[in-house]
Amino acid sequence: MLEKLQELVNADTALVRRGRWLTADMMLEIGDVRHLVKIREGRIAEIAPLPLLAMPFDFAIRGTEEAWHEFWQPVPKPRHHDVMALIREGKMRIEGDLEKMMAHFLTLKMMLEKPRLAGRRDGA
Q1: In tens digits, what is the pLDDT along the chain, a chain of 124 residues?
Q2: Alpha-carbon distance 63 to 77, whole Å?
Q3: Contact in structure between 60 and 29 (CB atoms under 8 Å)
Q4: pTM, rounded to two decimals
Q5: Under CATH, domain 2-116 is a member of which superfamily?
Q6: Burial annotation 22-53 (CB, 10 A radius, 16+ → b, else e)
């Protein structure tokens, strides 16, 4: 799903406009795999695997592979539909510059939900 994220977010002009003040490096951890998501003025500029040596990032969202898989289902099971719900369930966690993250949290959540919404349109 992550491979579709950049294309899906950048194609949504309303979402890009909403996030125009968001420029940050976000680390997404899916199980044991970490990716650096570079967001520039509301657009995802790059998604790249993080090497073993940590690269700096503004904030991180870490979750189990199962949690992300369920989160991206066209119709997630209860308490798997939202990052905050998964945090409450103990399946995800956030860290880093939380003030910056929370200032743009709705935009970030909308970005992360894009693969789920695309799955609904594809009939998945």
Answers
A1: 788 999 999 999 999 999 999 999 999 999 999 999 999 999 999 999 987 666 789 999 999 999 999 999 999 999 999 999 999 999 999 999 999 999 999 999 999 999 997 766 654 4
A2: 16
A3: yes
A4: 0.89
A5: SCP2 sterol-binding domain (3.30.1050.10)
A6: bbbbbbbbbeeebbbbbbeebbbeebeebeee
